[in-house]
Description:
438 residues, Growth Hormone, Chain: A
Amino acid sequence: MLRPMNICTGNLQLMITTSPSILRIAFASFIGTAIEFYDFYIYGLAVAMVIGPVFFPNSDPAVQALNAFLTFGIAFLARPIGALVFGHFGDRIGRKTTLAISLLIMGTSTTLIGCLPGYALIGWAAPALLCLLRFGQGIGLGGEWGGAALLAAEHAPKGQRGFFGMFPQLGPPVGFLLAVSSFLLLSQYLNDAQFRDWGWRIPFLASAILVALGLYIRLKLTETPVFSKAIQSRGAAHFPVAEVFRSHKTPLLLGALIMVVCYALFYISTVFSLNYGTSTLGIPRLQFLTMLCVAVLFMAAATPLFALAGDRYGRRPVIILAGSAALLSGFLLEPMLTSGSTLTITAFLSMELFLMGATFAPMGALLPELFPTHVRYTGAGAAYNLGGIIGASLAPYIAQQLVLHGGLSWVGGYISVAALISITAALFIRETRYQELS
């Protein structure tokens, strides 16, 4: 038990002695992903609660849910496109400017969703515009994570890449906590009719304030020394996307497959479980949101622990161990989610999100380490977001179909299969913790 404590103490001591500029960069990589994932998650929560009735009212509740889940998946199809577009410019002109633009696109799309009239006012144009803005969210987020991870990893001191790569990984749980808290607050003060009529729009409109804060922080950053050195020594890649697909197909594919379990764990535990818990199990929305707030704290707690473990023991062992636990957890979904006990359901959600944090934590270092500097933004971002197509884009939709045609245990099987895919991919990658980024 003493060795992990020594690991944590040593890393914290090194972090304290690190220059303030690097700490600011770590904070900037965290705050940007927190804001962008807040934007992304409020849509996921709205899908589970209100998007169907507002934008697809002329159908029964089951069809409304399926249509809403389909709009949820559109952003995941857009994310790889965003990763390639922003990766191209991030590898050619630098990380700083590209990150600012991705944040602006994400924030604009989110704010406009909050202003969008429903089907009752403009008919079919409402869901059409919703899909377009959801696509914009995906484009923005597709460019965010890769740049934020590189910002942290390419500034990290030697031997601490996993630790500093943790900061963008902390953005998703904090963003999710902000998203859930905003809907939780609204649920306390608004009735169902008020929430459906206008209350759900408030978290989307509030995004404009958060994006302004994020842009202020991002525009004060400097370019990463690794990228600056690479530009001076060999110049920028002419067409990074083509080079990634030509010369780095294997790490791209393996990186994407490793990400599958992270996405499946998260979106089954949040978007699908929220919809199933409130509509099928009859758990009040306020109560289930509170349960998710508790559960996401376990994801946040797992992130630094397993990031440090990745520095100490390597990325592959951590991913394989956490992925194996995720595989077994799929068998617990049905008995725990249908237990009728609030405590048991909360324990299941907490377990799944803890495992999500455990599998997700090493990715902030691992994916950048798989690619050379001149195509790193493109490669890491594309791998991260291509994994989302398999693990998350249709996860709530597939889960809903599995429940309708096979039962809840099949949803647990979905998690186990996703974990098996990621474990297999991890077995084929090389260990990267000693990989030099420059």
